[in-house]
C-alpha cells in the first residue's frame, strides 16, 4: 500500500485544556483506520484538525507531499480530504437529491449556467447521475425527493456520506457513522465502505461499535487524553493494557497487579 496521509506531532489546546498532545500517525492508500478512544479523548478534535475546522498549535499534516495544516477547510477538500459530522445538520427546505447535488464540487461557469449552455447542461447531467448512483449505494433512493431535514438520524448520516463522496475524495473521515443507523443497514454500510476502500479511497472512522470496527479495520489507533496509546489490529485491543486503562481507568492496572 502507498503512504498517503501523514500527521506529525499535532498538538491543540483549548485554553488550559490540552486536548491533543503531539499526535503522530500515517494512513496508507486504501486503508480503513479505526480512530478509537473514550469520550473526550480528542477524536473529533483530531478530525477537525486534519480537515481544517480547528487550527492546530503545532505539528504538520501532509497529503502526499503537500502540507495542508495551514489551509482553510475548502482547500483541504480540494486536496482530497472529505469528512462527515457526528450530528449532521440538514437544510430545512432542500430535498435529499438537492442536498447531494449542492455538495458536488464541479464548478460550472457563470455564463454556462445563466445561459444554459450545453457544457453547463452536460456537467449538471453528469452530477445528477453521480448523485443518483451515490443515493442508491447509500440506500437513500426511496427518500430522494423528501426534505433532507425530515430524514431519521441514521439516514442523515448516510446522506452526509453521499455528500462527502460527491467530491471524489482520496480520504474520507467518518465521525461515528453507525450511531443512529438501523441495525439492518449496518452490515450494508460496512460492505459499502469496504467497496470504497477497494477502489483506493482511504478511510478514517471514529466509531464506538466494536463489531463494526472489527469487521472493517485492519488497524486502529487509540487516543487517551490526547495521546495515541495504541496502534494495532482490532483483535489486539483487549490485550493491550494501555487501551484497557484508557477505557476502564488506571485502577484496572492496579487491580490486575494486586490480584
Ligand atoms: N471548540 C472547543 N472549545 C473548547 N473545548 C473543546 C472544543 N472542542 C472540543 N473541546 C474539548 O476537547 C476535549 C475533547 O473533545 P472531543 O470532542 O475531541 O472528544 P471525543 O474523543 O471526540 O469525544 P466523544 O467520543 O464524546 O465524541 C473535550 O474536553 C472537549 O470539551
TrEMBL record:
One of its GO terms (molecular function) is ATP binding. Residues 5-250 form the ABC transporter domain. GO terms for cellular component: plasma membrane. This is ABC transporter ATP-binding protein. CDD domains: ABC_Mj1267_LivG_branched (cd03219). Signal peptide: none annotated. Pfam families: ABC_tran (PF00005). Keywords: ATP-binding, Nucleotide-binding, Transport.
